[in-house]
Specification:
With 412 residues, the chain is α/β, with parallel strands linked by helices. The protein has a single domain, classed as Aminopeptidase, CATH 3.40.630.10. It is 30% helix and 12% strand. A 6-stranded mixed β-sheet has the order 1-2-4-3-5-6, sandwiched between helices. Helix 4 runs parallel beside helix 8. The longest helix has 28 residues. Bound molecules: 2-acetamido-2-deoxy-beta-D-glucopyranose (NAG). The site of 2-acetamido-2-deoxy-beta-D-glucopyranose has 3 residues, from strand 1. 2-acetamido-2-deoxy-beta-D-glucopyranose binds next to strand 1.
Length: 412
């Protein structure tokens, strides 16, 4: 993002060297990215009943107050860890912990626990893998008491869980089929980060907010990978920081906030458009539904930078990480109506738009699959005529036990 190239001294630039560099650039496409086929988009795994707000195996356990340092927070953290250990044993689990005081902790240190779940190609050292990084915070607000934060960010956490399991088998198959170590391209890994302590306890300030993100960014900036690694620090191995926040209300409006990631924003918007055309969007089955990605037709230079939004990306952005901020912050409507319960409508499970939550989960799955170049490895039903209605019927058929049955082969 902020790379300053020093000019070659004396202007003596060997033509052969230039040729080599040109060839190298051809061999190392920095942004290798592969669109999914229509068939694969039609066959994306669906969450089925797992997003049920009362007994859905993924979402319902997160819909409780989970203020940092409380037992609710521990319960939700354990829910993520149990899910990963049980259903996704190939994923590495890592914690990044800190303690900090807050304006309401009366001098006591509050623990903030970030959870990182990652996969790298087999045999590739962590410092040699550039990781797509998908992030949401799992803590909820201290006030008002009992605040749930369904869009903020319980639903995004559940979407991440669904995306992880939906690409898991395809990652394994891709890495078995190709020898990653003989691959000339940069090694690509992926990580999902569940951040703690995003919310302010009292009033949002630089020190009362982003507790987990500040600690993680600082640690990952100072930790150094093994000598001769491709990436010097865990921070520099983040190939893109995709932050999900305030998602789950109907008709979201997502702006493109950063020039450097506008290409990836357009990819997300492109997937949205294709999923609608293929009738895979439950929240709007019409092709002409209001697009979520408002800036898809804009060029980098037309992006508005009028509203800088304070969120978990900031400590990473400040350190030069490329950020794609996927947040429902409409240029005229602002945040979702339920935001922080300020309009008298609680941000709880009952006020989620579950069709929208499901649509987000397949959109994020598709983006991760395209980034990781999983076409050919994702489940591909080949039943090319299927639409949302058909898949709904299939979900019912496939989940006879209902609540505690995962829609995929994974079971908790
Ligand atoms: C971080 O916190 C988690 C969850 O409480 C705990 O299991 C882990 O051992 C802690 N890690 C360190 C290094 O303290």
């Amino acid at each position: 993002m902020l790379i300053a190239m020093s000019s070659a001294p004396g202007g003596l630039f060997h033509p052969f060297l230039s040729l080599c560099i040109a060839l190298l650039l051809l061999l190392l496409p920095g942004e290798a990215y592969q669109d999914l086929s229509d068939d694969t988009l039609r066959s994306l795994p669906r969450p089925g009943n797992d997003f049920d707000i009362h007994d859905g195996a993924l979402l319902s356990p997160i819909l409780i107050p989970r203020v940092s340092g409380t037992s609710g927070s521990t319960k939700v953290l354990n829910h993520f860890v149990d899910f990963i250990r049980t259903s996704l044993p190939e994923w590495q689990i890592e914690y990044q912990n800190s303690t900090q005081t807050t304006p309401v902790s009366k001098g006591k240190e509050v623990p903030f626990i970030n959870l990182i779940a990652s996969r790298d190609p087999p045999g590739v050292q962590p410092g040699d893998s550039g990781r797509l990084t998908i992030v949401a915070h799992y803590d909820s607000k201290y006030e008002p008491e009992g605040f749930i934060g369904a869009t903020d960010s319980a639903a995004p956490c559940a979407m991440m869980m669904h995306a992880m399991r939906s690409i898991d088998a395809a990652l394994t198959q891709k890495w078995e089929a190709e020898d990653p170590l003989s691959n000339l391209e940069e090694h690509k890994g992926i990580q999902f980060i569940f951040l703690d302590g995003e919310e302010a306890f009292k009033d949002w300030t630089d020190t009362d907010s982003l507790y987990g993100a500040r600690s993680l960014a600082e640690q990952w900036d100072s930790e150094v990978h093994a000598a001769m690694s491709t990436f010097k620090t865990p921070l520099s191995s983040i190939s893109m920081f995709v932050l999900l926040d305030l998602l789950g209300a109907k008709n979201p409006g997502i702006q493109s906030h950063f020039k450097v990631t506008h290409w990836a924003y357009k990819k997300l918007g492109g997937i949205e458009k294709r999923l609608r055309e293929l009738k895979q969007f439950k929240s709007s089955n019409s092709e002409s539904g209001t697009p979520w990605f408002l800036d898809i037709a804009k060029s980098e230079d037309q992006l508005s930078t009028a509203f800088p939004i304070g969120d978990d990306h900031i400590p990473f952005l400040k350190r030069g990480v490329e950020v794609l901020h996927v947040i429902d912050a409409h240029p005229s409507r602002g945040f979702p109506e339920v935001w922080h319960n300020t309009n008298g409508i609680p941000d709880d499970g009952e006020h989620l738009d579950l069709d929208t939550v499901e649509d987000w989960s397949i959109l994020i799955t598709a983006f991760a699959a395209e980034w990781m170049e999983l076409e050919g490895f994702m489940p591909n039903g080949g039943d090319s005529g299927s639409s949302v209605q058909d898949t709904r019927a299939e979900n019912v058929k496939r989940s006879p036990q209902g609540a505690k049955h995962y829609n995929q082969k994974t079971e908790l």
